[in-house]
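I would like you to sit down with the pair of lines that follows and say whether tokens and residues agree.
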Amino acid sequence: MERPQSVSDAHEEHPDGAKELYERAQSRKGEVVEQEISRESLLQEHSRHLKFQTEGHLQPRNFILPMPYRPSKISLFHANWTHIKKLRIASREIDEAIVLRTLTEPVVHSSSVTIVEDEHGDVARLTVCNLEDSMNDPVLPKGSVLAIKQPCWGIAPNGGYYIRVDHPSDLVVLVTTDKKVPVSWRERDQAKASKSAVDWKKEGDMMFLKKKFRKALDWCVVNIVAPWDVTDSTTATSMAAVSSLLRPTLQHELTCIASAAASTLYFFDSMMRQKISHKR
């Protein structure tokens, strides 16, 4: 089998080259990028990387701190919306944001890498760093709709371009019924609309048993809350805040709940066994 060196070259930065990539990007700061790679080629390349990931051929992880920049504090309700074709190299506008949809499952390694499109059909590689991510339960599975604050182009290790996010707070995963999601992307699944809260809870329980904790949250909470017509900005902000707080701690909290439940069942089981033995 061919040695998958290109996977490391395409997705992983190296200490010797990180500074050079930063300097190259700074020397071209503000330039608009003309994508030279087609949508099909980008998806094909990513599929090859996914295959290497599944087969366990990825290179050792490299954790390299980027040059610091401030996270955006702007609310999505007040952001200036942009598109992929308008992005510039190394030029982050603190009040800008972009809505994207993932076209693939992510490659989860030192960072989470996926392919995204905007509402005009333009595509890009997206790299999100500093996420507690996994292949089994990814933060950004295929079909996710997300908003990215202060997006810009970076120069990738393989010489191409990518959108990079280093602050998790600059990434917001949107429910597909959100008003900020393009109309053509909004969910119109009648089967989902007909499901009750009990049905969603059962499906969420199944995801929990499969250790897909994020999907369990989506199916137990988001699909129950999402049908609400949230037009009030304060309510919508509160709901988004609750979701963003729940996601990072979900696996820990659910594990604690499961552990507590198991301990309780064990306690009652022991008590019942003692009562039965005393009766005998």
In short: The chain has two domains: 5-181, 190-279. The mean pLDDT is 75. Strands lie at 80-81, 96-102, 107-108, 112-117, 123-128, 145-149, 153-155, 161-165, 171-174. Residues 7 and 45 are 9 Å apart (CA to CA).
